[in-house]
Write a structure and sequence with these properties.
With 363 residues, the chain is mainly α. The protein folds into 2 domains: 79 residues, no CATH class; 273 residues, no CATH class. Helices cover 66% and strands 2% of the residues. It has 15 helices and 2 strands. A two-stranded antiparallel sheet has the order 1-2. Helix 13 packs across helix 14. The chain is globular, with a radius of gyration of 22 Å. The mean pLDDT is 87.
Length: 363
């Protein structure tokens, strides 16, 4: 059984990597379609596969939807020339995209995507590694992604890339504090009397079976979401890139597949961040507040729980894209002031409120 368990975990890990890479590729398409919809445009609708496009009704519909555009983009990144400018530090220049992509892929191993029932009727989380410090693991590993960005900026020997790397490090430090403080009230709620306790993400989902935490702790959810935007370098917090100021920021000198890795890591971080937000504040795979899940406790129930959880992730991803094409980019000083003068005091006040609240409730 031990070897079967190891093989299952390896297969599950490879499946998750494939799913994440595919979702990240189609996340680019979704962003282009959402931006086109917001701006009254059509978006990608020309790339086609001849023998599929020839199928009546379905083929042209898939083409208009732009479903083949990520395949064309991936082939373009794969087949283009690998530019390595002569003035860069080649070892770290090549290493940086890998250091940026690896933490994004590693964090997903502790995220539960649903639950399943064994032959005896016991329920288990659908997760690769159900460790007791799951949320701390995500915060620790995801913060390592900034090293890839900093290395990319420094090794490029380009002032624009260097500024982008420095901005990324400063932004991570500023918003990591608020993000961590916003999690403490969640842990206090999960470890309240009558709850299962611990830092297991699965237990956090189970604690929201009656009511989602976004309704019980709206300030924590707001601070975490804003910090998540900053941690994933999304507009209006895309200080490491800022095309209007730094050309392309930390990836100015990159092209071909190395640039593809840097862009994929951003979208994978968005997907994992949306999954974590759904786990912490949107009830995970639980159906609706005050409503029990309508699906059965069997294999079909597992499939339904995963689909419902993925729908929540897609909703959060749509919110990411909506905000990008709605709000203007902040100035660098505004980003720093928001992190240090607004979010950190707000998260500290929120934490003190729940300390007093749970202290009174325990009496």
């Amino acid at each position: 059984m031990q070897w079967i368990d190891i093989v299952w975990r390896v297969v599950y890990g490879l499946i998750m990597i494939g799913v994440l890479m595919t979702l990240a590729s189609y996340g680019v398409l979704a962003e282009r379609k959402v931006s086109a919809w917001i701006q009254g445009r059509v978006g990608p609708n020309r790339t086609s596969v001849p023998f599929i496009t020839a199928i009546p009704v379905i083929g042209p519909w898939l083409q208009r939807l732009g479903i083949w555009q990520p395949l064309a983009d991936g082939l373009k990144f794969l087949l283009k020339e690998e530019p390595i400018p002569g003035h860069v530090n080649k070892f770290y220049f090549i290493l940086a995209p890998l250091l940026s992509l690896a933490p994004a892929l590693i964090t997903v191993i502790v995220v539960p995507f649903g639950e399943y029932w064994d032959a005896e009727g016991n329920v288990h989380p659908l997760i690769l590694a159900n460790i007791d410090i799951g949320m701390l693991f995500i915060v620790a590993i995801s913060s390592l992604g900034v090293y890839g960005i900093v290395l990319a900026g420094w090794s490029s020997n380009n002032k624009y890339s260097y500024f982008g790397g420095i901005r990324s490090a400063a932004q991570m430090i500023s918003y990591e504090l608020a993000l961590g403080l916003s999690l403490l009230p969640v842990f206090m709620w999960v470890n309240a009397p009558g709850k299962e306790g611990g830092l297991l993400l699965y237990n956090i989902v189970k604690a929201q079976e009656g009511l989602w935490l976004i309704f019980l702790q709206p300030i924590s959810a707001l601070v975490f979401l804003v910090a998540l935007f900053a941690e994933t370098n999304r507009l209006p917090f895309d200080m490491p890139e800022t095309e209007t100021e730094l050309v392309g920021g930390y990836h100015t000198e990159y092209g071909s597949f190395k640039l593809g890795f840097l862009l994929l890591s951003e979208y994978i971080n968005m997907i994992v961040g949306s999954a974590v937000f759904s786990v912490l504040f949107l009830g995970g795979w639980h159906f609706l507040p005050f409503y029990e899940a309508p699906w059965p406790s069997n294999g079909w129930g597992t499939i339904c729980s995963v689909i419902w959880f993925c729908l929540k992730i897609f909703c959060v991803l749509f919110f990411f894209m909506w905000i990008r094409w709605t709000l203007p980019r902040f100035r660098y000083d505004q980003v720093m002031k928001l992190g240090w003068n607004v979010l950190i005091p707000l998260s500290v006040g929120n934490l003190l409120f729940y300390i007093v609240f749970f202290g009174i409730m325990d009496r």
